Amino acid sequence: MMAPNANITGDDLVITSITAKDMRWPTSLGGHGSDAMHTDPDYSCVYVTINTERGVCGNGLTFTLGRGTDIVAMTVKALSYLVQGRNAGEIFLGFGQFWRELTSESQLRWIGPEKGVTHLAVAAIINALWDLWAKLEGKPVWKLLTDMDPELLVSTIDFRYITDVVTPAEAVELLRQNAAGKEQREKELLEVGYPCYTTQVGWIGYTDEYIREKCKEYIAKGFTAFKIKVGRDINSDIKRCKILREEIGWDNKLMVDANQIWDVNEAIEWMVKLAEFKPLWIEEPTSPDDVLGHATISKALSPYGISVATGEMCANRVMFKQFLQADALQFCQIDSARIGGVNEILSVYFMAKKLNVKVVPHAGGVGLCEMVHHLQMWDYTSLSGSKEDRYVEYVDQQHEQFINPVVVENAHYMALTAPGYSTELKPEAIEQFEYPNGSEWQRMFNEGIFKRKE
Ligand SMILES: [Mg+2]
Question: Where is the Mandelate racemase/muconate lactonizing enzyme C-terminal domain (predicted)?
Answer without folding.
Answer: 208-304
